[in-house]
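User: Can you predict the 3D structure for this chain?
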Amino acid sequence: MADTSIKREKNQETDQELVIRTLADKQAFSLLVRRYDAPLFRYILRMGWKDNSSAQDLLQEIFIKAYIHLNDYDPSLSFSSWIYRIAHNEIVSSYRKEKTRPNVLKKETDFFIFDNIADDAGLSTHEGKRFNAAEIQDAVNGLEPKYRDIIVLKFFEEKSYDEISDILQMPLGTVATLINRAKKKIRELLERRH
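Assistant: Here is the predicted structure, written as structure tokens:
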């Protein structure tokens, strides 16, 4: 599967090439860290992390775990999916340790994301109503964690069904079912509020 999440520029090594290079030269891992630092930090925040300092700490734990387990990386998967799987597992594990799981996404400033959710869920002109970004975000926040997580990966992180399947370690059909159920639940939440 091609790694579509990080675009390759001229003379820029692919994730797989950097992994191979890191196995021989541990200093090369810093290039992978630089490449994934901002996307993973945003993902942590989108998964409900409220404190930037502890989010940075968690991000460091994710990179340490990735570094330690780099020999276990399966090159048949995209590196992006592999490191997001580590991130997802670390986030869920941290919430379990704290015995809390926030149900609120940080306020998103990229309002086009909510337009994408609305379009994909058939909400753009649902019964002649146009829902705004704040209403859709509130509906996403009202989802159970399993549905919210999958919506974050699909729409906020722009992961494909295959990548979500790899990250969450679930069959592709289950991913499709959960995304469809999540969109249906968003519609239901919005309809109840109107």
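The chain has nine helices and no strands. The chain has two domains: 15-98, 112-193.
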